[in-house]
Amino acid sequence: MTLTKKAESRPAPASWGLASRPGAPWEYAPAPEATDHIRIRPEYGLFIDNEFTPAKPKKTFQVINPATEEPLAKVAHASKADVDRAVRAARSAYQNTWSRLPGSERAKYLYRIARILQERSREFAVVETMNSGKPIKESRDVDVPLAAAHFFYYAGWADKLDFAFSGLTPRSLGVAAQVIPWNFPLLMLAWKIAPALACGNTVILKPASTTPLTAYLFADVVRQADLPPGVVNIITGPGEIGMELVRHPDVNKVAFTGSTAVGKMIAKAVAGTHKKLTLELGGKAANIVFDDAPLDQAIEGIINGIYFNQGEVCCAGSRLFVQESVYEPLLDKLKARLSTLRVGDPLDKNTDVGAINSATQLAKIQELVESGVEEGAEIFQPDCELPGRGYFFRPTLFTSVSQSHRIAQEEIFGPVLSVLTFRTPEEAVEKANNTPYGLSAGVWTEKGSRIFKMVAAMKAGVVWANTFNRFDPTSPFGGYKESGYGREGGIHGLGAYLSLDGAS
Length: 504
Ligand code: NDP
Known about the structure:
Elements: E1 10-11, E2 25-26, E3 43-44, E4 46-48, E5 51-53, E6 60-65, E7 70-76, H1 80-96, H2 103-119, H3 121-132, H4 136-157, H5 161-164, E8 171-172, E9 175-179, H6 185-198, E10 202-206, H7 213-224, E11 232-234, H8 239-247, E12 253-257, H9 260-270, E13 276-280, E14 286-289, H10 295-307, E15 319-323, H11 327-338, H12 359-374, E16 378-380, E17 396-399, H13 406-409, E18 416-422, H14 425-432, E19 440-444, H15 448-457, E20 462-465, E21 484-485, H16 490-495, E22 498-499
Parallel strand pairs: 3-7, 9-10, 9-12, 10-11, 12-13, 14-15, 14-19, 15-18, 17-18, 19-20
Antiparallel strand pairs: 1-2, 4-5, 6-7, 8-22, 13-21, 16-17
Helix pairs in contact: 2-4, 3-4, 4-6, 10-11
Bound molecules: NADPH dihydro-nicotinamide-adenine-dinucleotide phosphate.
C-alpha cells in the first residue's frame, strides 16, 4: 500500500459539459486562507487567575502543525504543584465571586464570550486548522460557529435553572476538572466550559497536548470578556497531569472526552469519591442504508459520516451496512464520490480531507488498515495526490469485511470505512449492536415507521435519520456501554453540572 503518489489530473465531471473533450485535464486552483492576521506567540504559560504564568519548575513542550510538521509554539508543561495552584484559583473564584453572582449576571459574561468568538471567528478557525490539521472549511463552518452557539445557548439557561428541573432545587457543584481531546479542540472546550459556567461552577481545563492553541486563544477571550480571575483556568501537560487534576481532592466534578482506555482509568480514580463524573468515549457507529433510501443523498451522508474531520470523530459512521439489493449500485456511486474528495493542505478552502492530527494517530490508522488487508478485506483508495510532508492518509474503503475483523470492531479514528451487508431489518439491528460501543448510528430509508422501529432497537445515544453528524447545542449527546455515560448538550447537559438532590 502506498501512502504518497504523484499528482494526476482527473477528467472533468460530466455536469461541467467538458466530457466531449475526453481527458480534458482540470484541477482546482489553490485557494489558501490567509494567515497574516494570525499572531501565535512563541510561548504560552499556564492560564491561572486570568494570568499567563510559567509552569513551576519552568518546563515547556513543543506544539507543531501536523500538516507541515513545523513548530507552532512552546507551551507550559504543568507540574503537580501547578495543578494545585489552578484548583486553588478555581476554588477561590467559586467561593468569592462566581457562585455568588445571580444567573442573569453569569449569562451576561457567557453572551459576551459568544459574541467575541463570533467577532474573532476567522482567527479561531485558522489557528484551529493550523494546530489540528482539520480543513479550514470545517473549522470555519462547523467548529467555531458551533462553539459560539454553545455559549449563546447556555447563556440563555443561566438565569432559568429553576425552571429546567421541575420540583428540584438546582445547585452548582463547585470546581470542575475537564480533560478534552484533540479532534475538536475548541468545540470540546465550549461543550465543557459553557454549561459549567452557566450553572455557577468554576473550571480547570486540560486540552490535549497536540492541540492547546485555541484553548490559549480562548484564555485571551476570557480576559477580553472581563471574567473574574480564576473562573476559567487552563493548564497544559501530558496525560499524567490530566490524572493529577482528576484526582485532586478539591475537585467536585470531572468531565472527560477521549479514549475508552483513559475513560476507564478516570472512572476508577473517581470511584468512591463525592465527584460527579461524565465520560464521553469512543464509538464504532453503524450507518444503515435500506433499499428504499434515496441513494444519492445517502452517499453524501456516508461521506460526511466517515470522512468529515478525517474520520477523527467519536461518532463517525465507520461501519456502513447496506441492504444487499442496493449494494452494487451504492458501492459504485460511493467509490466514484470518494475519488472526488480533495486531500491536502488544510488551509486550502477546497480541501475536503486534511491532515491526521499526529504521527502517533497516523501510525495507529496505518496499523489497523494493514490488519484489514491481512485479515482478507478488500481495500479501495482513490488515486489522489498526498503532500510530501505532514501526516496524511488517503480516504479508504474496505469491502468483504467480516464482523470479526479488527477494522469492524475497533475504533480506527481515521478516514477508513468498513462496508458490510444485510438482508432484513432484524439482521441490520443485530449487526449494528454487535459492538462494545454505543455512541451514535444512522438510518437511511424513506419509511418513517421503519425509522422509529430502528431508533428504538439500536443501542446508541444518538441516531440520525436520513442525515449524519448533525450537532446542535440543544440536543443531548452521549453514549451507552463503552462509549461512556452522562450527556452533554441541551437540558441534560445542565444536569451534569448541578446537584439536583434537594427537592423543593
Ligand atoms: P486520550 O484518551 O489519551 O486523550 C484524551 C485526553 O486525555 C487528552 O487531553 C490526554 O492528554 C488526556 N489523557 C491521556 N492520558 C490520561 C490519563 N491517564 N489521565 C487523564 N487524562 C489523560 O486519547 P489519545 O489522544 O491517546 O487517542 C487514542 C485513541 O483514543 C484514538 O485513536 C481514538 O481512537 C480515541 N479517541 C477518542 C476520542 C473521542 O472523542 N471519543 C478523542 C480522542 C481520541 P494528552 O493529550 O496530553 O495525552
